[in-house]
Design a protein that fits this description.
183 residues; 7 helices; 0% strand; mainly alpha
């Protein structure tokens, strides 16, 4: 893959992860008590630590989002933090699935509608973490990613929008697979 294609891929992944973390942070900031309850329900931390952990998660997501949006700054540390957060989410879900606790709310996309955890969420978070690792590797030289050419921003915006729509569609289909199979 040539350097300009790698650069475009990096910016697309960067933008897509920024949308993901902005959405996640928005849901948590709108309903912090519900987020604390959802995090506590995973039972991976002592109850006394859950409120502080919730604050730390929100702060880390804010740092990731700021780093992904800021330019020119090196993207690797923020992409690496994104990967760690996504791996942490995957582990939390996997631990609870392993315990047989499949009826807890994932807390993935807000707290107004309950969505139970499922194995596909582990795969989703591992895939997203892989994207973040790829971005960190591309930006590992410590230099900011060069800005794409003006015309390439159309490609970045279009590919990011399509990726986000595909993500939302797949999430909806996986979340409702059992309902759709009954029809």
């Amino acid at each position: 893959m040539n350097a300009s294609a790698v650069l475009l891929l990096a910016w697309i992944v960067r933008a897509a992860l920024a949308v993901l973390f902005a959405t996640a942070l928005w849901h948590k900031a709108r309903a912090p008590r519900e987020f604390i309850a959802a995090l506590g329900n995973y039972r991976v931390l002592p109850a006394a630590l859950v409120p502080a952990a919730a604050g730390a998660v929100m702060f880390a997501e804010m740092v990731v989002l700021a780093g992904l949006l800021a330019t020119p700054v090196p993207v690797a540390p923020f992409a690496a933090l994104a990967a760690l957060l996504l791996l942490g989410y995957a582990v939390g879900i996997a631990v609870n699935l392993g315990r047989g606790r499949t009826t807890i709310d994932c807390g993935c996309h807000g707290f107004s509608g309950r969505q139970q955890i499922a194995g596909w969420m582990v795969g989703r978070n591992l895939g997203l973490a892989t994207m973040a690792v790829v971005l960190a590797r591309i930006g590992q030289g410590g230099e900011p990613l060069p800005l794409p050419a003006a015309a390439d921003w159309v490609t970045v915006a279009g590919a990011t929008a399509m990726g986000c729509l595909l993500y939302a569609l797949l999430h909806y289909l996986m979340a409702n697979a059992s309902k759709l199979q009954r029809r």
